[in-house]
Specification:
mainly alpha, about 80 residues, about 70% helix
């Protein structure tokens, strides 16, 4: 894939610095940047579920397996019993 991008002065300077530091070209710097951003997004994607699972929140309650389908009816029935 070919990439065509417009960079302002600040980004141009950053790109030039990275190219100089690694003694590479634009393509290599862009590949590293995409890899780093991709890994960050993958961590964010799995992080929320991982936090919930490790905290014990996921699967901590007991109830009927059909609760997601019948919760409105069940709640209405419980509330009507209180009145």
């Amino acid at each position: 894939m070919r990439v065509n991008a417009r960079l302002d002065g600040a980004y141009e300077a950053k790109l030039a610095y990275l190219m100089e530091c690694d003694h590479t070209g634009v393509s290599a710097v862009l590949k590293k940047a995409v890899d780093a951003y991709y890994q960050q997004k993958k961590r964010e994607e799995t992080n929320a579920l991982g936090i919930l699972e490790s905290s014990g929140f996921v699967g901590c309650a007991e109830g009927p397996e059909s609760l997601s389908e019948t919760y409105k009816r069940d709640l209405t029935q419980l509330l009507s019993e209180k009145w």
